[in-house]
Amino acid sequence: MTALILQHGDETPPALLGDWAHARGIPCQVHRIDLSPHELPALDGQPFIASLGSEYSPNDTDVPEVAAELELLERAVARGIPVLGLCYGGQALAAVLGGRVERAPEPELGWVRIDTQAPQLLGEGPWLQWHYDRFTLPPGAQELARTDRALQGFVHGPHLGVQFHPESTVEIVREWARMDATRLTELGIEDGEKLVDAGDEQTTAARVAAFELFDAFWRRARVTERSSS
Hints:
By secondary structure, this protein is of the alpha/beta class. The protein contains six helices and ten strands; from the N terminus they run E-H-E-E-H-E-H-E-E-E-E-E-E-H-H-H.
């Protein structure tokens, strides 16, 4: 079966998630939900669904692609299809499961290491962050990690939501910094690109951490698949 990846714009590609799926031999369909919010793929037993970053908040339910995705994720959860939510995707998953999405007191931008209670599922990083909102822990979910500013990860059955961007590269997030230049200036940040600068050792460590996270999610997803068959 083919996994489904929901992409929300040119600037938010699957990147490392796509590299990981290719390396593991997992076929994936990437659906540009921003271009086709009313033509969603049918749910037919996908091994998992991944939701990537977005310029929107899950609270923007007047936006067609947001409303359509929330409805799709609700149906996926109801059918037991594992969902991997990354930043916006993690917020959307939290909302579908009964959590809240709210404005963070301070944004998290750039590199961060997280305090993890479950390193076998979610390592400390280094991770790239770029978010202004945050989610609360959904009812029945298990908290995995946090920083002093936001909850960073949770599991709920086979589903995994994180607040950071394990799929993104320095080049991708650097472009977000350029796009957010005016907003960053209002926050007193004159050079957002410096927030994501990193050497080869750190970018390699982030790629390794991302693959480990995706592997851990995939193992949980496969256990769910076997137990339901």
